[in-house]
Protein: ABC transporter permease
Organism: Pedobacter lusitanus
Amino acid sequence: MSKPLHALLSTLIRKEFRLVFRDKIMSALAIIIYTLFLASGLLTVFQYQQDQQSRELSNKKFRQQWEAQHSDPHEAAHYGTYLFKPLNLLSAFDPGLNDYFGTTYRVEAHIQHEVDYSNAERNDALMRFGQFTLALIMQLLIPLLLLFISSSALTFEKESGTFKMLMAQGIKPSGVAWGKVWSNYLLAILLVLPMFTVLFFILLFSASGTALWGRFLVIFLGYLLFYLLAVLTGVIISALSVTSRTATLIVLAIWLFSSILVPKIAAGTAADYYPLTSRVAFNNDVKQGFLKGINGDAPYHERAEQRLAALLRQYHADSIAQLPVNADGIIMQYNEDYQNSVFDHYYAQIEHTFQQQQSLLTYVGIADPFISLKRLSMAMSGTDFYHHQLFFQQAKKYRNNLIRQLNLQLASHPVKPEGTYKADPEFFLHLKDFEFRPPSLAEILWTERFALLSLCFWVLFLSASLNFITKPSLR
């Protein structure tokens, strides 16, 4: 039986490819897909270069401004700086949540900012339709094309009468079905392989691309799993349908439901079930918490007086003028530390709500593999919620350490009769730049383990379903 099966697979694959090349509609769709690939690729490269140049110029400008400082360190802290979420080549492939959560963090004394300046805030079209990217084409259009092609794989044989001829030759229905699966899946691989090949060589010859090879491999395998899942779905629908028209309508409904409706409904449900505090209310909570105190602490003025009294006792001084340190710098850093603790206290509630929303989407993704693919693609591209939170935490830590260095520098120089202390540019020159430390591949895989399990589960489930459906006979 192995020889007839091998011959069948070879014949079916050749037949499917001949039909695809002869079918003007399929050829036109392939041309459209590659045209979209080309247009999206050019836009992606242009946008990536523009964003990267903008970040490099801004970082250089801010660094020069810091090195040119010759002022009170606390004034420099008020002047502050900006930190930018780093870009990589995969983040250009799938921008993910960057356009909606922002990419810029403001460093400033007395104020804890969030990551802000998202593109969606200034672009109504982006809010409504999303960004035209390579990932969007691969997640939406390619699966639609595969569903459309594979949904008529078996109905065409039944409508043309060739299916009965195959059965008369002793070929099992499951052999025909799997021949259709592998022929259509090979077509999918050949369709997307050029794009992934180009991306691989871009990473290969990029200075920072070697660090992304593992992520790229997971993305490649994730999309291949999803395409196999799409082909299996189409062939199963084809096996259960009487006509090609019926099968096409069913797979179109499945595509709309799984790729458009369920993600929208899931996101809306997560926001409704776990609502976030508004930014205005959050900022007010932080302000009031700092002024009135949290966890039974004294109000702002009492805390400052207590800290000053403790400082005088520490140095056995009767007045501020007798202190060997600058009391302003110490008190300001004390207030800064307290405000940081207030911010963390209230932000922990926000972060918990975010985690609840993400958990809900993860569980929905188990039922909807499209959501799992999207989450896996964003995670490997470094544009998911996990990377966003990691950037925010590291940026906040850098901000707190920088403000502390500036305040303590001021505190180490007592007030002199001739005027306020001005730090030498040499001090600002030695302040370190912000460096984002991305998570390891193992950490990301563990975070998105349910997305990987979802894709694998659905491939196995649909494979078993296809065998069960075609085991007795096809209708």
About this structure: The first strand starts at residue 81 and ends at 84. Residues 125-129 have pLDDT under 50 and may be disordered.
